[in-house]
Design a protein that fits this description.
This protein is of the alpha+beta class and about 220 residues long. It is built from eight helices and five strands. β1, α1 and β2 form a beta-alpha-beta unit. The chain is globular and about 50 Å long. Bound molecules: glutathione.
Length: about 220
């Protein structure tokens, strides 16, 4: 059984969507911001989510793991699902996961912190990061013009890496709404029942404790 510590954020939703899509057994435990839950902090999470503990490892020793993209790769390896077997598609899957993690997410996070958390003195820098975010999403949109899913024909962990931040991106940056391929891809992902369950398994408005389970 996998225990996963969650809160309603896009990094966390990568992990819960993956757990639902892969069909692995799990329990999701909601840890609100500022939680001092000992098991949660013992994962090395530094108070951040997602963080998981896998108690069903091959050597029988629990494995704690943080970082949403590492969790995606770990669960793909454990379940044997959602990672292409064809070498080209697998390389493409890794390539776009890294693009989403390193090129798209950091400028978007900078806009978030500069405009919503610390307004005024940072607005000029925020505008630069906003343009950068839009340019990166434009490249992603062009890629999706020729690809049904991020790695090609097959839904994979690269789609799961991209989808929750894109939901937030479209809410917060209206300029992204003009990207039609991005929107069509998001509609395809949003229609998947496991994605819907995973997006909802993170504790929006819920007290601390167990909030979702698949046995
Ligand atoms: N790079 C990490 C980011 C984890 C992260 O920063 N999570 C945020 C929510 S998206 C969090 O828990 N923040 C709380 C904090 O920084 O105290 C990942 O992909 O898992």
């Amino acid at each position: 059984m996998i225990e996963i510590f969650v809160r309603p954020t896009s990094a966390t939703r990568r992990a819960t969507v993956m757990l639902e899509e892969s069909g692995l057994a799990y329990r999701a435990i909601h840890v609100p911001f500022g939680s001092t839950d000992e098991a949660f902090l013992a994962t090395g999470s530094r108070g951040r989510t997602p963080a998981l503990i896998d108690r069903g490892t091959p050597d029988g020793r629990p494995l704690a793991l943080t970082q949403s993209n590492a969790i995606l790769l770990y669960l793909a390896g454990k379940s044997g699902k959602l990672i292409p077997t064809d070498y080209r598609a697998r390389a493409r899957c890794h390539e776009w996961m890294m693009m989403l993690a390193t090129d798209i997410y950091p400028p978007f996070a900078a806009v978030y912190f500069m405009t919503w958390k610390k307004p005024e003195p940072y607005m000029e820098a925020a505008a630069w990061f906003e343009d950068r975010t839009i340019a990166e999403y434009e490249a992603f949109d062009r890629h999706l013009a020729d690809n049904e899913y991020v790695a090609g024909d097959e839904f994979s962990i690269a789609d799961i890496a991209g989808y929750p931040p894109a939901v937030l991106g479209l809410e917060d940056l209206p300029a992204l709404r003009r990207f039609q391929n991005l929107r069509a891809w998001m509609d395809r992902i949003a229609a998947r029942p496991a994605v819907q369950r995973g997006m909802a398994a993170t504790g929006e408005g819920r007290p601390a404790g167990l909030i979702a389970q698949r046995s």
